[in-house]
Amino acid sequence: MVFIIAEERYAIILDKLKFDGIVKTSDLKKELNASSETIRKDLKYLDEAGYLDRVHGGAIPKSDVKPDDNDDDVYISFKVRQSQNSDMKQSIALKAAELVKEGQSIGLDSGTTSYELAKVLKKKFNNLTIVTNSLINAYELVDKKGFTVIATGGVLTPDENSFVSDFATLILDKINLDMMFLTTCGVSLENGITDQRMDEVVIHNKMKDCSKEVVVLSDSTKFNEVSLITVCPLESIDCIITDSNIDIELVEKFRAQEHNIIIAE
């Protein structure tokens, strides 16, 4: 058995943080062959030295942490999330596009996987109506000839570039969507779909309610995770698309309870 000294662990942790935008205690335990207590001490040392910020279950870069009212649930910026698991998100977006038909009306929220899907839809389709509360999605699609882009409006958040508040839901009372793609921070059998920002959840649910079908886009790292705010139970969605890194035994548990999971190869 090979043991790694503290300085080597620090270097590995910081390299992984730089590349992935986040480190998880569970992953570091396996990669570094260390105990939970050792990883906790390493992250504490690096936090106090100013290299990172500890969050529940791991750590994120120093400049991208924004504490929430709940110390166990810390907001992670769009910029950091965009760099996390990008290959997984791209594969999920490609699989999600297979469910879309030319001419449909599609709802996209402000998540990073939603943004990957917006880019795929732009390449693959000629005639779609896209409704979104994301300024980033709207800007990506605005020059696509044949697309109708409807931004919800509302209060614009600078950290997410998304429209929030009750104002953002008013237009949704007048819209009927064929399909909504819902991104998330957590998927679990017990807690359903959860997210980290309350002001986003209001819009997610309103967009979900005016859609014929609701498809959750979630990379495999978010399964068995529970974030601060409950969005909806699993029974209120039609299917979940995830990546091929998902544990097959976990998939079978979901399917045993009649929850449809599509795996993007």
Automatic annotation (TrEMBL):
GO terms for molecular function: DNA binding; DNA-binding transcription factor activity. Keywords: DNA-binding, Transcription, Transcription regulation. Residues 6-61 form the HTH deoR-type domain. InterPro entries: Carb_Metab_HTH_regulators, DeoR-like_C, DeoR_HTH, NagB/RpiA_transferase-like, Tscrpt_reg_HTH_DeoR_CS, WH-like_DNA-bd_sf, WH_DNA-bd_sf. The keyword Transcription applies. PROSITE patterns: HTH_DEOR_1, HTH_DEOR_2. The keyword 4Fe-4S does not apply. It comes from the Bacteria. Signal peptide: none annotated. This is Regulatory protein. It comes from Romboutsia hominis. The lineage of its organism: Bacteria, Bacillati, Bacillota, Clostridia, Peptostreptococcales.
